[in-house]
Amino acid sequence: MAAEVRTTCPYCGVGCGVLAKVAADGSVSVRGDPDHPANAGKLCSKGSALGETLGLDGRLLSPEIGGRAAGWDEALDLVAKKFSDTIAAHGPDSVGFYVSGQLLTEDYYVANKLMKGFIGCGNIDTNSRLCMASSVAGHRRAFGEDIVPGTYEDFEEADLVVLVGSNTAWCHPVLYQRLLAARTKRGTRIAVVDPRRTATGEDCDLFLPIRPGTDVLLFNGLLAHLVRRGALDADYIAAHTNGFDAATTLAAADAPTVARVAEGCGLDPADVRRLYDWFAATPRTVTVYSQGVNQSAHGTDKVNAIINCHLATGRIGKPGMGPFSVTGQPNAMGGREVGGLANQLAAHMGFEDSAAIDRVGRFWNAPAVARKPGLKAVDLFEAAADGRVRALWIMGTNPAVSMPDAARVRAALKACDFVVVSDVVRTDTTRFADVLLPAAGWGEKDGTVTNSERRISRQRPFAPLPGDVRPDWWIITEVARRMGFAEAFDYATPAAIFREHAALSAFENDGARLFDIGGLADIDDDDYAGFQPMHWPLRAGRGARADRLAGDGKFPTPDGRARFVAVRQEGPALPVDGAFPIALTTGRIRDQWHTMTRTGLVPRLMAHAPEPAIEINPADAAAIGLREGDLARVESRYGSGRAKVRLTDAQRIGQAFLPMHWSGRFAANAAAGPLSTPVTDPFSGQPELKHVPVRIAREPVHWEGVLITRRDIRPTGFVHWSRAAVAGGWAYELAGTEPAEQGILLARRLVDVVPRDRLLEYTDRRHSIFRAAATDDDGRLAEALLVAPRGALPEREWLLSLLASGAPLSSLERRALLSGRAPVAMPSIGRVVCACFNVGVNQIDRAIAGGCASVEEVGRTLSAGTNCGSCRVEIRGMIEARRLQAAE
Ligand SMILES: Nc1nc2c(c(=O)[nH]1)N[C@H]1C(S)=C(S)[C@@H](COP(=O)(O)OP(=O)(O)OC[C@H]3O[C@@H](n4cnc5c(=O)[nH]c(N)nc54)[C@H](O)[C@@H]3O)O[C@H]1N2
Ligand SMILES: Nc1nc2c(c(=O)[nH]1)N[C@H]1C(S)=C(S)[C@@H](COP(=O)(O)OP(=O)(O)OC[C@H]3O[C@@H](n4cnc5c(=O)[nH]c(N)nc54)[C@H](O)[C@@H]3O)O[C@H]1N2
Ligand code: SF4
Ligand SMILES: [Mo]
């Protein structure tokens, strides 16, 4: 049996250690690494399904030029020539890179060095612009450098954890489970500030359903309250900070009373007071924030409003205390360290300081080093649209889906003269590539990532590179060599790149930059191979050091003091109005990762939420005339989309939520990107992805269909379709506004390729019902298509079980096919709640009815909730609902 390889999960910023093992048949199994300090052996539903995402279906296996397969030499020569020619004709500002937190630090480092050092332009930006830019800007304003002072242990050593705009239960599940475990032990209080009652908000001690965009007011009110109560650390403020008076004066004017805050934030004054009292009285307080804070037109101010409260109480960098920005992507932090943002240079040095620019230029031996920031993501695509940027290289991100105003981004990709895309699979973005470069994916890549708590870990390969696939660092350095920069990009291994990156962080660094990993500048190949997860900083010759930063009150500003930033609550950049009356927010669901390129392939990850759904409050739905399961049309000023309606009182009246995940490869038109606004925060350039005014209407659906098939197809011509991976193939949901007879004709085209003699068909014209089924050579189910008027489709669970079983059909089953119904009744497990053990809502219901009165008892009976724990909140809700029912 092959040995287990120690690597890191490629999903969220928790950065869990993973042990991967390849079996003799090539299948890969994973388990949590018990020795990794981030997760101590735990994995969430996504992490534990990693082994199921590694098939070669859809993989890019060779370079392509204009859609035809090409060799590496030809593709690399062309990329280098087009970039060089464009720069020669139009200057360095006419090219750009758009990169990603999916890249490893070594990939990121060479991409940044090529653009900023040798092309001599700042035009390299990253999808972290959509993710962490406001935190970066807020940290730099307050601390002078982009530092996250705390560690995950602070979650466990705190007495109060305030989660702001963070659905930690679903988005950082293993960290959340650590918090819950600590709560059981020490009685930690958890407060959640989120407009929606998320899974995180379901299980907390205080839930504040804040009016979207008003977090500055809430935290200004807190600062004013701390002043009024005298709950300040006056010594700390005097010794270690600047700007206290200006910030508190503005906060007091902005948020003079609890009543005013409650009114502005749409909250119950008693809840606001409770939060303030808890905060004032609890030294060990951690305030955790992510996209509800960052993705806002006022994101940077939100970050500083939070940090101000921690500075005022001296609660930074000490056990159980601190503001804590949890990062999204596996290597969002590594990208920030190398300078992957257009307004950063490298190794936490910026463009403000000409000495720093010279220093980086000297270190790289790069005479052309960029002297000014480049274009940030939204502006970069705008420049591609209007011809200022003529050659664009996209690596490891899917902007045709994930950028705001995505239709405009697609138009920009079409308009741009030369578009290169490096990706692992085909995506909505690769369709626009002039040159497509097949990159190594997780399990093949080799390098480092940094998680939310500044811990550097290794991603290690355990599978060979398939086809002609190459790692990103290799692709980038090959292009650099061909552009004439061979000497500066002469690396044989990722370890060599890492050493240089470490050396740059320490270069002429007398302690002014906290990001210093000079202690690793001489790491040899063996130590790099065996590298154990470590926090930075790791200075040369410093030996043991504290894991937290700024605990001594010293900050990387010129005078060593942290800065209060005076902020004021601004009105919404884009208020709702009569034409677009609903405030739409977008974000994540439990088992999907971004544009679904990996998690969308795993049946058990699709089962929790198989269709794209817009969540709205029943009162709004009633006013619009929408019922559960209807198809809604959602329109903003930028674009439109369609999704199924999910009614929930977790959503407040006047607000709606759409997941960001469903790309054009998974649904006709259900992406959040085209609806979202490109309005950005003035300091960070981060777009306001959490708020856009929309209107919602009911689509008059006349027919619905479902196609269960082994084939991977892309339906066209339908008003709506979406698909979910199921065991053995795919299930396509179809819906249309045309009369049902027309729907039948349209849907029937999907099985046109099936040989006539294979296809069994049944038509009931009077009721507009159509059914078709086909078996393959071995007599196994290959296709089943059911079409019926709205609401009249039979259950599909039986057909799905036939596809999953892969066994030849019995004659009884074959005869039953056209009824669409099982020949013998089978109990349905219902919608899957526990993705780890594939346990459905009906099974849990039955277990509760049978006497299970706690989440633990359900776990003992069905195993549900006993692995990653992400579904425990939902199970608890079901037990609670049953108890209330019984009491009525
Ligand atoms: N399952 C899963 N996990 C993931 C990811 C994934 O795709 N899937 N992606 C990873 C990445 S890259 C990221 S960046 C993180 C994101 O992790 P999170 O930030 O936790 O996730 P989101 O769902 O984007 O947004 C969080 C919450 O912000 C709330 N919100 C909206 N507007 C406001 C507001 O004005 N104020 C406040 N206080 N809250 C508001 C939303 O209702 C939402 O519940 O998740 C990471 N983890
Ligand atoms: N409306 C709305 N939009 C959002 C958000 C939101 O909340 N709402 N959130 C934003 C946030 S926080 C984020 S982080 C972004 C994420 O948005 P994207 O970055 O577009 O999302 P992914 O699906 O993670 O895309 C990563 C791509 O990289 C490829 N890939 C994976 N590993 C590698 C690799 O090693 N090398 C290469 N070359 N390719 C690789 C994958 O196949 C995939 O196509 O979305 C943003 N967009
Ligand atoms: S919490 Fe889940 S997605 Fe995040 S790193 Fe850990 S296993 Fe991966
Ligand atoms: Mo993100």
Automatic annotation (TrEMBL):
UniProt organism field: Kumtagia ephedrae
GO biological process: cellular respiration; isoprenoid biosynthetic process; nitrate assimilation
GO MF term list: 4 iron, 4 sulfur cluster binding; metal ion binding; molybdopterin cofactor binding; oxidoreductase activity
Family of this protein: Belongs to the prokaryotic molybdopterin-containing oxidoreductase family. NasA/NapA/NarB subfamily.
UniProt entry keywords in alphabetical sequence: 4Fe-4S, Iron, Iron-sulfur, Metal-binding, Molybdenum, Nitrate assimilation, Oxidoreductase
Name the record gives this protein: Nitrate reductase
Domain 4Fe-4S Mo/W bis-MGD-type: 2-58
Cofactor(s) the protein requires to work: Mo-bis(molybdopterin guanine dinucleotide); [4Fe-4S] cluster
GO cellular component terms given for this protein: membrane; oxidoreductase complex
